[in-house]
Amino acid sequence: GGPKGVGALVLRRGQELQAQIRGGGQEMGRRSGTENIVGIAGFGAAAEAAAADVAAGRWEEVSQLRDLLETSLAESGSPTIFVGKDSARLPNTSCLLTPGWKGETQVMQMDLSGFAVSAGSACSSGKVRASAVLRAMGYDEIEAASAIRVSLGPETTREEILRFVETWTAKYMKHAKRAA
Fold first, then answer.
1. Which whole number is the average pLDDT over 80-100?
2. Which of 48, 86, 129, 160 is most open to solvent, judged by the fewest CB atoms within 10 Å of its CB?
């Protein structure tokens, strides 16, 4: 939730880092340019707010909503695979693979229904091809091409999750009828 373009880099003591851009020699030669003081203050405020959310258990609540999303979709009758379901993972993100239903098609259909989801990995947004990461994890081309990411936040409600599930399921059923 902090300002764009500001972040923190934590290094192990004694670990060296070479500058990517040469210039004024700030930060012991690691970067150049003037510090974005307002952005840094905003980053600090966002970090404090995030720490308070963690301490208050808000992200545990989000992981329960993510699990509700996945359980409800699993009960829909679709052949959906939930990537990482049995592993420690981010509390707010679900990666769904529904073989035979292209991720970009799902993105468009859910967008038209008022839901913003993404196809593929976050770092490849806008690229229409199967995720190399999913392929490396052992998913085939068809499975990997069917991936969407659904992200939740502390403000997401149970009602929104259930409305998403209802909408996604209806879209899937329509797709399955056409594909049959």
1. 94
2. 86
**95 catalytic residue (yes or no):** no
Q: Is the CB of residue 134 less than 8 Å from the CB of residue 83?
A: yes
Contact in structure between 6 and 39 (CB atoms under 8 Å): yes
pLDDT tens digits, 142-168 = 999 999 999 999 999 999 999 999 999
How far apart, in whole angstroms, are the C-alpha atoms of residue 45 and residue 70?
32
CA distance 54 to 118: 25
Radius of gyration (C-alpha) of the chain in whole angstroms? 20
Side chain identity at 103, as an amino acid letter? G
Distance CA 161, CA 152 (A): 9
Considering the candidates 8, 10, 11, 123, report the single residue annotated as catalytic. Answer: 123
2: pLDDT strictly greater than 60: yes
CA distances from 163 to 42, 72, 113 (A): 34, 11, 10
Give the start-end residues of each E strand in 34-169. 81-83, 93-97, 118-119, 147-151
Q: 56-88 pLDDT, tens per residue?
A: 999 999 999 999 999 999 998 899 999 999 999
